[in-house]
Amino acid sequence: MAPPPAAAGLMAPNAKRYTLAALLATLAVAVVVTVSFVVLCPARISFTVARAGSHRSGGGATGSVLRLNLTLAARNPSGRATVAYKSMFVDVSNSTAAQRANWVSATVTTAMPLEQPTDSVATVDAAVDLVDGVWMQDFTGNMTSSFSVMVTAQARFKVGVAWTRLYDIKVACRPVSFFPHTSANQPGTGGDAGHLPVSCV
Fold it and tell me: Distances in Å between the alpha carbon of 69 and those of 14, 61, 78, 93, 127?
């Protein structure tokens, strides 16, 4: 049975109002999501190898140790977001190819977690100790090789009072030389290597 003419006339405006209300609610949700995404979008952190060098120590019964030192510089260009690095791992490979042939894990000596303010550069130090011997000579190419440095980190970003989720960061820095190649320095005896900084991508 069809509704009375008066009831049919009321149903049409009500349906339009419901449709309009649903559209406005959807638009409001989209605006909130968009604003949240823009506000909480993580900063574009860039890494470089700012310093790389080497020196020997020891020389007793256990043999000498060659230490490879490096300093990473993490640039936070954001004027709004601070960064909290929860963890950071550094690996060093004796190959500059995309696929690493041999690699060793470095010891990150900078304490974690690490807080980084807005628009700033944070430095992270790491070192690899290699015991003198055939394997060390092979790994370093008799202290003439160029290396790759792989950086893996987890970080959160804070804008105002809001924190983002935990983000994974992974970059490769190459080529990196730990050995100075000048006539004034014997390779591997100490000092900083050249061609720095090295960008990480």
Answer: 73, 24, 29, 14, 5
Phi and psi dihedrals of 33, rounded to 5?
-65, -45
Say if residue 142's pLDDT is above 70. yes
Q: Measured in Å, how far apart are the chain's first and last C-alpha atoms?
A: 71
Compute CA 54 distance to the chain's CA centroid, rounded to the nearest angstrom. Answer: 24
Q: How far apart are CA 187 and CA 76, in angstroms?
A: 34
CA distance 119 to 78: 5
Contacts of 185 (CB under 8 A, 6+ apart): 191
When pLDDT is averaged across residues 8-21 and rounded to a whole number, the result is 61
Q: Quick: pLDDT tens for 33-88.
A: 333 344 446 778 999 999 999 998 876 556 789 999 999 999 999 999 999 999 99
DSSP assignment of 112-161 equals SSEEE-SSEEEEEEEEEEEESSHHHHHHHTTTT--EEEEEEEEEEEEETT
Q: Is 48 in contact with 189 (CB distance < 8 Å)? A: no
- H/E element holding 56? strand 46-60
